[in-house]
Amino acid sequence: MFIATLIAADGLNAGQISEGRDRLDAAGCASIAADWIDAGVAADILFGTSSEAARTALEGVFPGVDIAVQSAITRPKSLLIADMDSTMITVECIDELADYAGIKPQIAEITERAMRGELDFAKALAARVALLKGLDENVIERCLAERVKIMPGAVALVRTMRARGARTILVSGGFTRFADPVAARIGFERAIANRLAIADGKLEGTVHQPIVDSATKEHTLSDAINSLPVAREATLAVGDGANDLAMIQRAGLGVAFHAKPVVAAAADVRIDHNDLTALLYAQGIARRDWVLDD
């Protein structure tokens, strides 16, 4: 048994749900029933077979509506692994640091190419950090206070999942000086990120080894599956860039959040229109059951 969840950024109506059922039936998916999670915002359609056919039948059909298709049995998730930059926060931290150094366009171009999978991540990281050599360490705290904003829905997602017993890990190709406070603000249990080399109050232009990269993210997920333990099907991974692709493909439900094309094409679920609370709706959790603060 499968569930297709329709999640609307600007409103969902009964006619769209009915059309969704018709499209599933036409695709041979045998729709069974439909029900609201939150009226006018998110709804489930239960169907009998062929999840891939269901995605093809529904994705991109309704403007402003994201679609999550998955097994009904493994819908609740017990582990969340999440990227940070442009996923749990609204910016790329290294680009914002570069802005204080007056070289944001130069670094942002490398960041964009790396996130699209056009450059080797480790080499791109080294090249960008090298350009920041000599930047005053105090700029990090200034950047954190002035530029780093929590992504809408992040707090509700993480704290609601934790309240329901899930484990949560933030794993970032960015830097601990941002990841640690961001993880604390959102409510993650643990944060993993790269460590900037700093001496005499200045960035040295390098990061400490080993690099937190795509392999690290995938290994973090695999290690958590084995050590907690938790079934792979009960895991959720979310990110936006090419260095998130391996963990997204490894997870029980891999989510591309406002992601680069290479990631969106490979993920189980694409969230293009909604905020991160879409991942609560994907688990069937209505707004009345969200945890919005401590």
Question: What is the string of SSEs from the N terminus onward?
Answer: EHEEHEEHHHHHEHEEEHEHEHEH
Alpha-beta content class = alpha/beta
How do the strands line up in the largest sheet?
A: 7-6-5-10-11-12
| Radius of gyration over C-alpha positions, nearest whole angstrom | 20 Å
How many runs of DSSP E, i.e. beta strands?
12
List low-pLDDT spans: none
Q: Mean pLDDT across all residues, rounded?
A: 96
Distance between the termini: 36 Å
**How would a crystallographer describe the biggest sheet?**
6 strands, parallel
Strand coverage percent: 15-25%
Number of contiguous helices: 12
Secondary structure elements and their pairing?
Blueprint: E1 2-8, H1 14-26, E2 31-38, E3 42-47, H2 51-58, E4 65-71, E5 79-82, H3 93-100, H4 104-115, H5 121-131, H6 138-146, H7 154-163, E6 167-175, H8 176-186, E7 190-194, E8 196-199, E9 202-207, H9 214-227, E10 235-239, H10 245-250, E11 253-257, H11 261-266, E12 269-271, H12 278-281
Helix pairs in contact: 1-2, 3-4, 3-6, 4-5
